[in-house]
Amino acid sequence: DFFNLVVENSAVVGYCGNVFPEELSIPDGVEAIADWAFDGCCELTSVVFPRSLRSIGSCAFRGCENLEAVEFDDGLEEIGDEAFAYDYALTEIVIPASVKRIGTWAFGDDLALQKIVCMGDAPEVNGSPFGGISPEARLYVMKGSKGWNELGSSELPYRWPVEEQSVRISYFQA
Q1: Which of 41, 46, 48, 66 is geometrically suited to a Cys-Cys bond with 71, CB 3.0 to 4.6 A?
Q2: Quick one: pLDDT at residue 150?
Q3: What is the pLDDT of residues 80-127, one digit of tens each?
Q4: 3-state secondary structure the chain
């Protein structure tokens, strides 16, 4: 039994092997995860990203139904469209302050997602990055962070445009 990441020009473009691990740690030095790289990898339960990672491509981890935990590191700048969509076991994410863009439906339909913590200013968002998640989900942002009010209505600092459901915002200090 074996499993190997396929890396080309500092980007993970996929994998080869006959066994997929439950826990995946992307090696340091990788700067990107290509579109569709791990789409539908149902065995995957957790993934840890290195500080060197700058972007996660569209649909990179889409449909990883048993993915419970992702650990982003500072340095990540972009999370692509549907990158983690349909990951039904994911309950919490912490988005580093370095993230500048989150794509459409990036965490869409992640039905178990309850807690989203954003460590910095509001990133550029395309469409609804969290469309289809539970109306009970909470978005937490750093006290003093900027841009959140501009993303939504004056009543609530952020709205999920696709579902037209408001999510309660809580401010916290690190």
Answers
A1: 48
A2: 59
A3: 999 999 999 999 999 999 999 999 999 999 999 988 888 888 899 877
A4: CCEEEEEECCEEEEEEECCCCCEEECCCCCCEECCCCCCCCCCCCEEECCCCCCEECCCCCCCCCCCCEEECCCCCCEECCCCCCCCCCCCEEEECCCCCEECCCCCCCCCCCCEEEECCCCCEECCCCCCCCCCCCEEEEECCCCCCHHHCCCCCCCEECCCCEECCEEEECC
